[in-house]
Amino acid sequence: RVKKDLIQLGLKEMIKIGKAMGGEKETFLGPAGLGDLILTSTNPLSRNFQFGKNLYFNAQNLRKDIKERRITVEGFDSSWALSKLGKKYKLDLPMINEIYKVIYKKTPPEKTIKNLIKLAN
């Protein structure tokens, strides 16, 4: 149930950002939106899935690794860009803000997981 709730929260935030930028809700409900979200957040072979898992268990080294080795992980750079877009459009994006805090503000992942579960319920 928690996984479903987190995906739903992520989708809501995707739609908020998309609509603020002139997009349509329906775009995010199709394969390019919801389909991609489900696949990349639940498939253990996905780079974003692996990034999230590794970030939880080894945050400090992972940040350094990504910067030094220039590893491509959408979630790493996207969280920064989405946080900035949220501020620009004055959007409430709690999930994106929590992810941003772990990656860029070095908030302990355990704290963020607890916050995200509360937000998703």
UniProtKB/TrEMBL annotation:
Record has Endoplasmic reticulum as a keyword: no
SUPFAM superfamilies hit by this protein: 6-phosphogluconate dehydrogenase C-terminal domain-like (SSF48179)
Gene Ontology cellular component annotations, sorted alphabetically: cytosol
Name of encoding gene: gpsA
Listed InterPro entries: 6-PGluconate_DH-like_C_sf, 6PGD_dom2, G3P_DH_NAD-dep_C
A molecular function (GO) term: glycerol-3-phosphate dehydrogenase [NAD(P)+] activity
Enzyme class (EC, first level): oxidoreductase
E.C. number(s) listed in UniProt: 1.1.1.94
Keywords of the record: Oxidoreductase
Domain Glycerol-3-phosphate dehydrogenase NAD-dependent C-terminal: 3-113
Alphabetical list of PANTHER family matching this protein: GLYCEROL-3-PHOSPHATE DEHYDROGENASE, GLYCEROL-3-PHOSPHATE DEHYDROGENASE [NAD(+)] 2, CHLOROPLASTIC
Protein name in the entry: Glycerol-3-phosphate dehydrogenase
GO biological process, one term: glycerol-3-phosphate metabolic process
